[in-house]
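[Discussion] Sanity-checking designs against the backbone

I'm trying to build intuition for which residues belong where. Below is a structure token string of 729 positions. I'd appreciate it if someone posts a full sequence so I can compare it with mine line by line.
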């Protein structure tokens, strides 16, 4: 049984294959306390850990120091305003101006199976795979009820958290903060790992020690962002890929978020995650409820590597829904870096023709095919085909590409509106803006106010109409600016604080509609590269464009950070032209292929114009993709060396679940004198199995390859790569 309630002890024990999570109900006021999260323990008698016999005394025993109790007790879901001065998870404002809440246990329910939340992305699991604990708490004074929700995925070692807030009072209240999860722990000299960056430099990992005060990672940009990522892991000092304890949280959400670790006066650490409270209020009428997005929690006693593999398995099995999730994706060629806005039917067909001869399977027409979109200053919103560019129309082009044996895909940016567009001239109030202020432009565009149903319907229909008009099998859904000037022409003043969250819900609704109407469509999300690469979007699309930076060397760090949490099956990665359009670096075509192999794989170049020697390599790369993609998509990921840490070389591997096959990618970034070869210890193999390395005669046992390692000959030059393919004999 994954969830047990021990009546006498008033204790819940949540067990997965290797972890235990324990919750206790204490005192006459029935506070819901956190007891333990960590390695699996068999004994359920964990209540002694709750410190109810130690000072400061619990309120029923000594109410004189109630504040001291609240300010130190480990809470499952701490509320605001009554004496817990650490970061709270929920706060409200009543009509009378009061902000406090005190949550007491009322009842609980244990159920089997998990269906996603209505209107929000979230994990799912069958009755055999997942049990759900719902603990109902209430604040007696306001009538506010909070349901603490725990999804226990026994086999994959994941616990999901969320809350639903119900207004059980007689008058409306305003929620001013609703986080989704809290974890109160003793300080184990934690370090926080988080992911940061910028445009073209997403998700670089950062490690900082946690000391007194608050350390937070957050976005108030209306999307997850290039800059910060909705993830934090607390690791014990000295944690490596294999050793050390890791507590990780990742948010299944694509808008404003905050994740924070706070070390308090008693060296206890509180970690919280949820929607960012800044500019957030939600009006809740009597009887109404608010469902907060989900947090995925992973505990690993075996270092970061195990955390990574747990997230990968969980997302592949319990979050990504697309029919493509377990399938090889068509190798695509995208014309963005090939032509930018300068293309027409003839040019695209020429690229497709050449690409099809080389084994590429799908042409994706990027930005610039609609309205008067001759550059990025205009026409977003005018989703009608520009027949000056696409002579003969879209269907003609798609049919011609299909005749070459290739699929066809198309780019959209449905959430946006250019001031220079027919749409804006007809509906200037459809842009998000504050009344009386000229909204700030970004890439010369505004964001559509999708919280208005007529705007959402219009934007959806624009996409759907195009998809209905031809055999289009793939969509790249882009979002190229972050939100600002938060104001809607329709929302009343006391609901304006709902706009950020309503916007995210509207995007989800559009993508849900799209998947319902076009269930076989392959959707790839994108946001100026990888600014919305998050679990929320993975619920709708099995792959996300990882970054606008396609340079193989820059990608090493971007893909390392991304793969820390997300499966390789989800990482959009392409081979592009050189000198690279973002950094001007020249790397061998071969290395670009090896690096893109760690993702969905494709091309982003004008195949008719690249050097012949590079073009000749494409059929080999295509064959390599077909040979390895099942392994890359479904295998277990092992990081061996990090270019981000050592500044010279990078190495990671993917091992099949049955450990019969593995592929290791080695990239030497900078060559150094005097190195004849590098000793690499392979990871993830079965110690007792016998293996052969492709290209070699000798047989090794797994133990030797992992403990003693192999010598990788020092390649000549910089930016050179090598694949090491290992199979069981
Ligand atoms: C974003 C995407 C690119 C490309 C351009 C088009 O930057 O990340 O891949 O589609 O938009 O404008």
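Best answer:
Here's mine. Compare freely.
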């Amino acid at each position: 049984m994954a969830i047990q309630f021990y009546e006498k002890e008033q204790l819940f024990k949540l067990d997965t294959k290797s972890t235990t999570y324990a919750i206790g109900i204490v005192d006459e006021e029935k506070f819901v306390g956190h007891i333990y999260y960590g390695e699996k323990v068999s004994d359920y008698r964990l209540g002694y850990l709750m410190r109810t016999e130690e000072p400061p005394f619990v309120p029923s025993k000594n109410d004189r120091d109630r504040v001291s109790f609240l300010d130190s007790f480990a809470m499952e879901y701490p509320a605001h305003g009554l004496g817990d001065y650490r970061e709270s998870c929920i706060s409200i404002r009543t009509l009378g101006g009061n902000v406090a809440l005190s949550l007491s246990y009322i009842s609980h329910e244990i159920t089997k199976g998990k269906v996603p939340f209505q209107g929000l992305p979230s994990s799912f699991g069958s009755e055999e795979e997942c049990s759900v604990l719902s603990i109902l708490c209430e604040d007696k004074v306001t009538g506010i009820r909070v349901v603490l929700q725990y999804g226990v995925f026994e086999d994959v070692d994941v616990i999901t958290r969320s809350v639903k807030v119900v207004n059980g009072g007689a008058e409306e209240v305003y929620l001013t903060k609703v986080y989704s999860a809290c974890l109160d722990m003793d300080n184990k000299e934690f370090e926080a790992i988080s992911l940061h960056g910028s445009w073209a430099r997403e998700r670089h990992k950062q490690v900082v020690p946690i000391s007194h005060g608050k350390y937070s990672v957050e976005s108030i940009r209306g999307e997850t962002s290039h800059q910060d990522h909705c993830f934090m892991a607390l690791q014990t000092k000295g944690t490596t890929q294999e050793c050390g304890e890791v507590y990780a949280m990742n948010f299944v959400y694509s808008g404003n978020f905050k994740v924070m670790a706070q070390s308090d006066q008693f060296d206890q650490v509180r970690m919280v995650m949820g929607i960012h409270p800044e500019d957030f209020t939600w009006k809740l009428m009597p009887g109404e409820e608010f469902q907060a997005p989900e947090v995925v929690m992973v505990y690993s006693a075996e270092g970061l590597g195990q955390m990574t593999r747990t997230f990968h398995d969980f997302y592949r099995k319990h979050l990504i829904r697309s029919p493509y999730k377990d399938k090889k994706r068509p190798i695509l060629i995208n014309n963005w870096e090939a032509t930018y806005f300068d293309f027409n039917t003839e040019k695209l067909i020429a690229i497709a023709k050449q690409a099809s001869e080389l084994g590429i399977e799908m042409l994706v027409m990027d930005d610039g095919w609609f309205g008067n979109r001759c550059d990025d200053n205009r026409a977003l919103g005018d989703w009608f085909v520009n027949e000056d560019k696409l002579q003969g129309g879209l269907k003609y082009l798609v049919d011609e590409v299909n005749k070459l044996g290739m699929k066809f895909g198309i780019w959209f940016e449905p959430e946006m509106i250019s001031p220079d567009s027919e749409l804006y001239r007809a509906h200037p109030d459809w842009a998000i803006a504050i009344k009386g202020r000229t909204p700030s432009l970004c890439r010369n565009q505004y964001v559509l106010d999708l919280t208005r149903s007529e705007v959402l319907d219009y934007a959806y229909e624009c996409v759907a109409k195009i998809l209905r008009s031809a055999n289009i099998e793939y969509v790249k859904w882009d979002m190229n600016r972050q939100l600002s000037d938060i104001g809607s022409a329709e929302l009343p003043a006391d609901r304006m604080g709902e706009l950020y969250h309503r916007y995210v819900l509207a995007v989800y609704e559009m993508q849900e509609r799209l998947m319902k109407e076009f269930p076989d469509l392959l959707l790839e999300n994108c946001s100026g590269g990888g600014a919305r690469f998050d679990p929320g979007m993975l619920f709708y699309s099995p792959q996300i464009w990882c970054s606008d930076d396609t340079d193989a060397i820059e990608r090493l760090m971007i893909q390392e950070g991304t793969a820390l949490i997300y499966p390789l099956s989800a990482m959009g990665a392409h081979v592009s032209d050189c000198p690279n359009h973002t950094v001007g670096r020249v790397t061998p075509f071969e290395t670009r292929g090896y690096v893109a192999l760690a993702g969905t794989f494709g091309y982003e170049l004008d195949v008719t114009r690249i050097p012949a020697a590079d073009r000749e390599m494409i059929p080999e790369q295509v064959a390599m993709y077909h040979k390895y993609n099942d392994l890359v998509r479904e295998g277990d990921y092992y990081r061996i060396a990090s270019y981000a840490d050592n500044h010279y070389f990078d190495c990671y591997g993917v091992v099949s679940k049955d450990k019969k096959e593995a592929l290791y990618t080695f990239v030497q970034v900078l060559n150094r004198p005097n190195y004849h070869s590098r000793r690499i210890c392979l990871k993830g193999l079965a110690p007792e199995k016998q293996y052969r390395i492709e290209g070699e005669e000798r047989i090794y046992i797994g133990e030797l390859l992992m403990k003693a390692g192999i010598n990788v000959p020092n390649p000549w030059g910089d930016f050179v790569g090598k694949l090491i393919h290992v199979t069981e004999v």
